[in-house]
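S.,

Sequence below, as promised.
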Amino acid sequence: MKIAILDANTLGEDINLACLQSLGEVITYPTTAPAQVAERLRAVDCVIVNKVRLDKNVLTHAKQLKIVCVAATGYDNICLADMEARGIGVCNVVGYSTNSVAQLTLSMVLSLAMHLPVYNRFVASGAYTSSGVANCLVPVYHELAGKTWGIVGCGNIGKQVATVAEALGCRVIVCRRRSDPTYPCVDIDTLCKEADVITVHMPLTPETENLISKKRIALMKQDAIVVNVARGAVCDETALCGAILEGRLGGLGVDVYTKEPFPADSPYNAIMHMDNVCLTPHMAWGAYEARSRCMEEICENIKAFYQGRQRNRLV
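The prediction came back faster than expected:
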């Protein structure tokens, strides 16, 4: 079996590929430009992708391709209909990054709520030493206990974040497609109005694109903290950045973007240096343990596919 990884750089150089190499010949490409995809699928039985887009336009030479393995839970970069039409199986990986994403979500919320970069800079600059005062309490920060934490999308990651939020003493409300017996479920407009902290964990679908819209951002509290670790296009990025610039949100944390990396004309460039903004390079999913689990799951998906078993199959 010949296996190709088209964007190995997104998985990290420290990941052990031994389990994959035990299944066949492995070819790794650090990155693959759109114009290179079709040729690199030639004579390949299995392809592993993270962000590379696959649709009918790149299947010209893919005569041997039998299975596409997505090194992620989200699969909006794969046209499932096109793969199914060609009889190509598609598998994703579920649940491998729950702890990693929840950890970054909490880190962002705490940093924004506590103004940690500002306090750290005060000490590192020498201002604390020269002040002659034992403490500094500006900017003012507030306890999260007693606040309302709204979770948009309460799957594996959302539930883990909810558990952490409750441990901090927050009241948790959720917005999801199906009711949840553990937490009060509300519609998205109600969540935007009531929540002091809003974290987004919703997959990108035609229904969820721009779910966090300009209109809904306008419903939010002026000191609300918003964190998006889902997909960039779930939020109206221009509206989010505009709200920060106009002082209509308390803080913004973002790990995902409509275009990645975001370009020079992205609205995030106008706010990236602001104290109440935390932008990270789509790394929430990528703790070493999570990436190792992801590769192990991909290997198990491939084994199951060739054994005729259904495992994480999308088509």
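Residues 2-94+288-306 form a domain with the Rossmann fold fold (CATH 3.40.50.720).

Coffee later?
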